[in-house]
Specification:
Residues 6-190 form the Aromatic-ring-hydroxylating dioxygenase alpha subunit C-terminal domain. Its cofactor is Fe cation. GO terms for molecular function: 2 iron, 2 sulfur cluster binding; iron ion binding. It is a single chain. The protein is of the alpha+beta class. The protein has one domain (3-188): Naphthalene 1,2-dioxygenase Alpha Subunit, Chain A, domain 1. The protein is built from 5 helices and 7 strands. Strands 1-7-6-5-4-3-2 form a 7-stranded antiparallel sheet. It starts with a strand and ends with a helix.
């Protein structure tokens, strides 16, 4: 384990997890941070019972167009997300994993925990070395994006939904993974 952080948010855990199962928000919400690193809204996913695998390609994946398939290296050009139903996401990049767990503590409150795993623990590295600096930068980036962008937006959505002014919501065809997630939750609770 590299590091772990935990915070409470004023929103339902499913709202937070929804953002991990769709990619169209990246351009609007993360336009000044990581949005430019991603090429488009196209999203594919694989279902495994109630679980999901969601590869999220970076713009560099467009290089595959000019390379034979045997040279393709997905992890060098994408983050692969795994949703482990009901409340866990694992993001795998080329050199680390991020584990997110969302613990509901009320209908509109969630404890979100982010843990970063690396091949070797932090203690095995010189704090001033390049590897440690790189891993610390990755941890800080993941934390900043969720802390400053994703989760506050989920809180805003929770306030709107809690106001009663939005009687229903509709999930579109571009939200297949979100739909799968909600079907799996309903099935798990007998709904």
């Amino acid at each position: 384990m590299w590091d772990r952080i935990q915070r409470e948010w004023q929103c339902n855990w499913k709202l937070i997890l929804d953002t991990f199962t769709e990619s169209y928000h990246v351009f609007a919400l993360h336009g000044a941070s990581v949005g430019p690193d991603y090429p488009g809204h196209v999203m594919i996913y694989d279902e495994f019972g109630p679980h999901l695998r969601i590869p999220v390609p970076r713009a560099s994946i467009l290089e595959f167009d000019h390379r034979p398939q045997e040279e393709w290296d997905l992890l060098a050009h994408a983050t692969v997300q795994y949703h482990l139903a009901p409340n866990t996401m694992v993001n795998h990049t080329i050199d680390h994993f991020i584990l997110w767990r969302f613990e509901p503590v009320g209908a509109d409150r969630t404890v979100a925990e982010m843990t970063m795993y690396t091949p070797e623990p932090r203690a095995a590295h010189d704090a001033n070395g390049e590897w440690a600096k790189s891993m610390e930068a990755w941890f800080d980036l993941h934390d900043a994006i969720t802390r400053d962008e994703d989760y506050p937006e989920s809180e805003r959505i929770q306030r709107v939904l809690g106001s009663g002014r939005v009687p229903t919501t509709v999930l579109g065809r571009n939200e297949g993974a979100v739909q799968h997630f909600h079907r799996a939750v309903r099935a798990a609770v007998g709904g």
